[in-house]
Amino acid sequence: MVRLLGVDLSNNKKIVYALTAIYGIGLTTAKKIIRDSNIDSDCRPGNLTIPEVALLRENIERVNLKLEGDLTRFNTLNINRLININCYRGSRHRLHLPVRGQRTRTNARSSKGSKTTTLNKKK
User: Which residue ranges make up each domain of the chain?
Assistant: First the structure.
């Protein structure tokens, strides 16, 4: 099992799709990394040799992207900044509601939580 940036890559998937398990690497970036490493895109991570894994690790570092912990920290700091300056988007984040103008009257059940019914009170 190949481990890159603290993530175990699945041995069942092709290397291109297995690299997308790393937070911050999408399909286009994975294809670019594989092409730069001169590794067959049909190869599985379990079939890679140690020099190929080292070359893959070097090319991931050379891409110069924020990945895994750095990217999550960057995103949470941006959200916290919006919350602290008390802008509209920050208040929507604070209330766990949709941020980008989606309808909330009938949808948004995943962000609003499960529907609760209120019972009729007797007067």
Answer: 3-62, 69-103
| DSSP annotation string for 1-70 | --EETTEEPPSSS-HHHHHTTSTT--HHHHHHHHHHHT--TT--GGG--HHHHHHHHHHHHHT----THH
DSSP lists the bridge partners of residue 7 as 4
> Are the CB atoms for 94 and 88 separated by under 8 Å?
no
In a structure prediction context, what are the per-residue pLDDT tens digits for the chain, which is 123 residues long? 888 888 999 889 999 999 999 999 999 999 999 999 999 989 999 899 999 999 999 999 998 889 988 999 999 999 999 999 999 999 999 999 999 988 888 888 888 888 887 777 776
| Distance of alpha carbon 101 from the chain centroid | 22
Q: pTM for the complete prediction?
A: 0.77
Domain 3-62 carries which CATH code? 1.10.8.50
